[in-house]
Amino acid sequence: MKLAPKFTIPELFDRYVKNSFPSKEKAFEILAQPGRTLYWGTDPTGPNLHLGHSTNLLLLKNLIAHGHHIILLIGDFTAQIGDPTDRDATRRPLSEKEIKENMRDYLDQVYKIIPKKFFKIEYNSKWYKKFSFSEVIKLASHVSVQQMLARDMFQERIKKERTIGLHEFLYPLVQGYDSVMLKVDGEIGGNDQTFNMLVGRDLEKELVRKDKMVIATLLLEDPTTGKKMMNKSEGQYISLRDSASDMYGKIMAMPDSAILPLWKLCTEESLPSQENISAQPKTTKEQLALIITRMYHGEKDAQRVRKQFRSIFSEGQLPTDIPEIEAKETLLQTVVAAGLVPSISEGKRLINQGAIAINDIVVKRWDQPNAPRSGDIIKIGPHTFRKIR
RNA sequence: GGGGGUGUACUCAAGCAGUCAACGAGGGCAGACUGUAAAUCUGCUGGCCGAACGGCCUACGUAGGUGCAAAUCCUACCGCCCCCA
């Protein structure tokens, strides 16, 4: 089996790439000859990859189809340092155990876009586990403090009088050294990784005399607000392993301004026209939700959740398969025990606000003897349905 | 090493002895309106009890102390920032 390229190299750059170094022309030239080795690195700082990562995955897949070799580098060591990118406070380093847990499902998410046999996997703990302190110092001598301070994110922190940990200075260095060890022809990463990738470029040039190109991909940002659409630290993102209905629903809940960026950066389908989006925002968004859900869950599930979504939200029907929960003595105890509401107090608040309904009848008072009975349908807020076992 | 400053809830940020579970903003949640969109309006946003008024408990870096009463005063410790060396 072979992967078929969906786009030519220039098309790929138009669609997914923001910047490339040393230049776009040079990148085209290099990529015109098959057999190049490129890598994408990611730190397992959480259990999920999200739609923002899918841009890189799609690009990589197409590069494979053009005959290049891809290495996926898992930063199991770098995750222990904590990338300062985009944080205005120090990131808490993760323990080895947390990292292992995060890694468990990581690859399965990658395989949904790029089948297993098409790329190599490396872990950077492989070389860092044995790194000695003198090697660290030697490595550090290749970069100056000024170079590090030039980074806007550090400038920002200096201005805000926030801490910059010395270890955070080390991060780009350590990530950059990955390039040296892998001796690659190029690196792919999000535009926010440009600084780190360029440090790697310098190191690779200096230490192994190899000219690594850097391809920085476009980030998923809301064009109206400029805000990142997938924010892992704020827990606001669409995970590649979200259930089909979650994925579909979350896409439908995105603002209209997100349609085009998502379509462009997270799919390979030809783009809808701006007029289409403006004239038919809802329909276009439905198409988008279907396309993306299909990529991760297949045609059948995507169609199923679309139908379900329509019946629940457009027609106000109940979902067909509602998860069941155990009844407790009172409604409040039931929803708290099931983990749907964090505390009794919060549950009381929700009821006072009219957010909870049993069998479509809004519960008005939390003290009423509305003990849940088997078969009752409990609705909490707009999206959560549970059935009493 | 010396001097000055600072540490408040998810974030920013007021408060500087009682009216503080703590102003305000952002975020989040819920309701109305909708296209589960955005914008807008309204309410909520520590826990537990209570129909409600309210009550109790835990919380303002940590540990002690003063006092009827402490986020607010004192002492020590810890963290962070700035200036000088």
From TrEMBL:
- A GO BP annotation: tyrosyl-tRNA aminoacylation
Q: Tell me if Cytoplasm is a UniProt keyword of this record.
A: no
| Uppermost EC category | ligase
* Bilayer-spanning residue ranges: none
Annotated Gene Ontology cellular component terms: cytosol
GO molecular function list: ATP binding; RNA binding; tyrosine-tRNA ligase activity
CDD domains linked to this entry: S4 (cd00165)
For this UniProt record, give its keywords in alphabetical order, as a comma-separated list.
Aminoacyl-tRNA synthetase, ATP-binding, Ligase, Nucleotide-binding, Protein biosynthesis, RNA-binding
**Which chemical reaction does it catalyze?**
tRNA(Tyr) + L-tyrosine + ATP = L-tyrosyl-tRNA(Tyr) + AMP + diphosphate + H(+)
Q: What is its EC number?
A: 6.1.1.1
Residue ranges of the RNA-binding S4 domain?
332-364
Q: Which Pfam families match?
A: S4, tRNA-synt_1b
Query: According to its UniProt record, which protein family does this protein belong to?
Result: Belongs to the class-I aminoacyl-tRNA synthetase family.
The protein depicted here goes by the name: Tyrosine--tRNA ligase
Species name for this entry? Candidatus Yanofskybacteria bacterium RIFCSPHIGHO2_01_FULL_45_42
